[in-house]
Design goal:
elongated; 11 helices; 202 residues; single chain; mainly alpha
Length: 202
């Protein structure tokens, strides 16, 4: 299993990974177009030629920054411990907030570069679809859910979209408790919808 973004390279990253991590930071701070491979190499402390040894083009490096992320399914399925929809929703929102906080640079890059780069837009769509499918599966497994699959899927799309867009529009969600409080009304609305109002208020 792939380790979380904030821990998987905690000890001595490879030269390739060091280049990716440096590129991620610089792309987020200055933008893709304004960041040269020479600067990436300098700040990574590697020869310029090593960048192109690992990545044929700068675009390939950008794609590696975006694509080599932990799969949403790996970090969201661990939230499926609660028995009720409401408890699972709280766990999902808290975990998404935590992961988005640690992956803030990659999130900025995806949001900015997807506008004019089909490859990035396509990857963003894949990540959204995977996260939505995972959230739908987690919600469908709650013991008190009575909604049909279409409604569960719509609820999952709402959760993923809302939490991600809030991090873009409002900045970091901060602590997990802050995130769940910010989204308390949405959590209650979805819980009531998926349980036809019979879910326990926890």
């Amino acid at each position: 299993m792939t380790a979380p973004a904030h821990t998987r390279h905690a000890t001595r990253p490879s030269k390739r990974q060091l280049i990716i991590e440096t590129a991620e930071r610089l792309f987020a701070e200055h933008g893709y177009d304004a960041t040269s491979t020479a600067r990436i190499a300098t700040e990574a402390g590697v020869p310029s030629g090593l960048v192109f040894y690992h990545f044929a083009t700068k675009l390939d490096l950008l794609l590696a920054v975006v694509q080599e992320r932990p799969a949403p399914s790996e970090v969201l399925r661990s939230t499926a411990r609660g028995r009720t929809v409401r408890r699972r929703l709280r766990a999902i929102v808290a975990r998404m907030a935590e992961e988005l906080e640690h992956d803030r640079a990659a999130r900025i890059i995806v949001f900015r570069e997807a506008q004019g780069r089909p490859e990035i837009a396509s990857r963003a769509a894949e990540l959204f679809a995977e996260a939505t499918e995972t959230v739908a599966c987690v919600l469908a497994g709650a013991e008190d859910v009575v909604a049909d699959p279409a409604r569960v899927q719509a609820a999952a799309e709402l959760v993923v979209s809302r939490v991600f867009l809030d991090t873009v529009a409002l900045g970091p969600l901060g602590q997990a408790e802050t995130a769940t409080n910010r989204h308390a009304a949405m959590i209650d609305l979805i819980a009531e919808s998926l349980t036809d109002g019979v879910s326990a208020h926890e």
